[in-house]
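Fold it.
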Amino acid sequence: MFRRIILAALSVVVIFSIPDAVRAQTEAQKEAYRKYIENQAALKDSEKESNTVEIYNDSEPVLPPERHANTTPTRYGIDVFSSVPAEFVSSSEIPVPSDYTLGPGDHLVVNLWGSADLTMELVIDREGKVFVPKAGELVIWGLKIEEAEKRLAEHYSRIYSKFEMNLILGKIRSVTVYVSGEVMRPGAYTVSSLYTLFNTLHLAGGPTERGSLRRVRLVRGTSVVKVVDLYELLMNGKGEDVRLESNDIIFVPVAGPLVTVAGEVKREGVYEILGGERVLDAIELAGGLRSSAYLEKVELIRFEDNLKNVLIDLDITGKSGAKKDNIEIIDGDRIKVRSIHDLKEDVVLLQGKVKYPGEYSHHIGMKITDLIGRGMLLPDSYTERVFVTRIFNDRRRSVFQVALKDLLSSIPVGQAGKEETEENGKGVPEELSESKLITRDMILYPGDIIEVYSTKRMHDTESVSIEGEIRLPGEYIFADDMVVSDLIYQAGGIKKEAYLLRAELARLVPDTTRSSEILMFDLGRVLTEPHGKEDILLYPGDALFIREIPNYSGHERVTIAGEVLFPGTYVIEQGVETLTDLIERAGGFTGKAFLPGALFERGSIVDELRYRHVEDVILSLREAQRDSSGAVMADGYSVNYNSGKMNRIIIDLETISQSGERADDIVLRAGDRITIPPRPSGVNVLGAVASSGTIKYFPGKKTKYYIDRAGGFSRRAASGELRILKADGRVLKRRALSQVIELGDAIIVPEKVIRDRDWMKILQTSVSIIASALTTVYIVTKM
């Protein structure tokens, strides 16, 4: 009946939800399309804004946009303007140059002394005049400081006689100039009249990437009063800068022809040219050539008729007939100066195990002993063979073996050897066809490679080994006349647990059916009489084994803690001492000792379980599961296994200590730990009870008594699974509710496992899935 009600409810919900679902999906599609149209419109607007040139003024300073880095050479001079101040700050500490021109707004300070002693401040008005008390007006607009001082002196001479005068510039006027064209921050700027064209251009952020640095115009009124080439200032530091006047216009046009200079020049970059420059002029703009530049083949790549790239090879060495290659350059040319090849000529190469490897200058008649003398070799240089590699003109390669040891011992350095024949311009020893070892002082040629190998490379490293009760076991390099005692002391000496009566030496036996033979010897006698008769001479590959004293062990320690008179760590006699012996040595129990709760732990139990592979067996019994992708998952153990809890041995210490029988006692092992707890406060009741806690102990009371004192079972209590944990570690379940409880026991009441099923959540999920499926079917049928 209940199932029919559920199915009916599902049908009603699905029928009414279909139109709403379809309508919701349609509205969602419309909203998504509307957002798409809005995003496209916003993208177009942002593109328009990025292509719009905005005019800024100094009232709202804006930092220049960040320049984009690229891998090609950058425009020369643009980076000078990369650090632009956020706003103009006029400094009153700037010295006034002698050629400064006075104008409206300047303040003049006049000092008179002599027949007249006074100080006056005169301000130049907009008509260029100053008013001098008692002397009237005076026009000084356009005068230099010295000229103005002279005119004022003449003017004051009408009033005073026998006086001295000094004229200084006080407050400096401000001028408004306009910066336009290809600059980072075009607009109007109010600056000090001491500012020059370059100062103001720097304040405006400098030219853009497409702005000119060589044709900057200063417009005053309706005419161009100056065209400034900033390259002179940037490259030579002596370019002519221009002082500004109010309403001047600084105009930066689009850059003129640009050429790129790269390669072995001192300053790679893109340079603007004025027209008529040649290749060497462009290289001069790039700071000149490096010493490694190869001048016989300079590349010039040019755009021809806006159709293709043309490569032109130029010789700019200046040799006869090469001057014609210094051609005129045009816009878009790219000049690349190559580097001289790294290959050095007229050298021989010495490498390998020598003191000073590297390249050496070759001279005619040079021989091996001229290059490699006795002072050039290292202790581990292999002199039986020296290898000389020679590459011929036809790219053929030959390697010669030279007996250097014989040469150094029998042939004086520099003595001539047998003449050599010529082939392809290089000498070939007569022994080449016979592939013999060359025993004479061989003549070297340019490009020869002489290599001296190490002795280790040409021979196997001979070693002996030592293992066992030694401080530094391992392999050691074999030495002539090496004996057993030498190897032992080289390995740090034997340990105290080493067995001295016998040691083993394994030796390889060549050319026999046996691979090894074993030699036994008295190790103690060898150590007391080193290099004596018993000290065996070693051979390469020998392996020495030093055994441990049988059943050797150091002090075996156990620990007793808790309620004994002398708790601590004790050394025991292995296989003899028992638990009662240890308690007696510890002074016996205190009055608070609780013997039923004694804890006896033995760490070796965990090792025993590991040796028996118990954990692997448990893991092999676990249940395997698969995830959604089909991969096998196996988590956890099939049984409750914790190796850390397996080291406890359940004992009845009260019985052991009272019986006195050795059969009931426990023989101690190294690492054992015994803990005697104090007398507990009562009985612990834990789990699904009204109030977990400790209840005062009453002799003879059963489990139900203590559960009632804890408030009884809770609604989720699984009373049938009740457990009693005894003080000695045992767990009781059978008739647990009627058990008589002892002091130190713990009563554990587990909770029931309840499967929680949320029918409303299941119903909502089912309706959602069915509605989605029917909506999909509806949409597909309408398409």
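The CA atoms of residues 400 and 434 lie 11 Å apart.
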